[in-house]
Design brief:
alpha+beta; 3-stranded antiparallel sheet; 9 strands; 21% strand; globular
Length: 217
């Protein structure tokens, strides 16, 4: 499978075309490629089994909050293999192997800039409480514990904090590496700024771009 690009909308070529061309040309070459000028856009890597799974910012219809990449993070994906792209945004190798064994596909989606919150603990918990009001009281009660303790201690301690932390992991894929300082993590180190926003269908956007890329685990 080669990289496949889909551009949609009257301004899609202007907004995303140059980046998609460089992504395709440099994909898997193992060398850093200079990103083209890119402004006023954001993106994320989607996954799914069917074409319908790529019609929104998440393949999970119950998911209401997603994490997004800014232009700096998008530029840093250029030249990587599919597995390296996934590692760069926080996928563990065993998770990639399990997903590819099931036939899961991956696509980078880019859309015009949306309102995003820096993914600190406070900002993320505020966003999740608003998106999942049924969890708001539990999030409020667990907030300080979640901010103060690492994942292992929270889960070992049980109780309300562990319940909320487990919900974040299941519903939003907030990994045990999430530090709440606004940065993604790879091998325990900060990589780049992390953002979160409410999910929405691609049909909400006049312009978008999907870049499907192969992943060999």
């Amino acid at each position: 499978m080669t990289v496949q690009v889909t551009l949609h909308g009257p301004r899609a070529a202007d907004l995303f075309g140059a980046y998609a061309e460089v992504f395709t040309r440099c994909f898997g070459h193992g060398e850093r490629c200079a990103p083209p000028p890119l402004a006023g856009v954001c993106g994320r890597v989607l996954r799914g089994l069917r074409d319908e799974d790529f019609h929104t910012l998440s393949d999970d219809p119950a998911r209401r909050v997603v994490f997004m990449l800014d232009v700096q993070a998008l530029g840093d994906l250029l030249g990587r293999t599919g597995a390296e792209v996934l590692a760069q945004i926080g996928y563990a190798p065993q998770e990639v192997r399990a997903l590819t064994a099931r036939g899961v596909r991956f696509k980078l989606v880019m859309v015009p800039q949306v309102a995003m919150a820096r993914a600190t603990w406070d900002a993320l918990l505020d966003l999740v409480a608003a998106a999942y009001p049924e969890w708001a009281d539990r999030i409020r009660a667990a907030r300080e514990t979640l901010k103060a303790l690492p994942y292992a201690q929270v889960m070992a301690g049980g109780g309300l904090a562990a319940e909320v932390r487990g919900f974040l992991e299941r519903a939003l894929h907030v990994s045990p590496l999430f530090a709440g300082d606004g940065f993604t993590r790879r091998d325990g180190r900060a990589v780049y700024t992390e953002y979160a926003c409410r999910t929405r269908p691609l049909s909400d956007f006049a312009d978008w771009c999907l870049v499907e890329f192969p992943v060999i685990a």
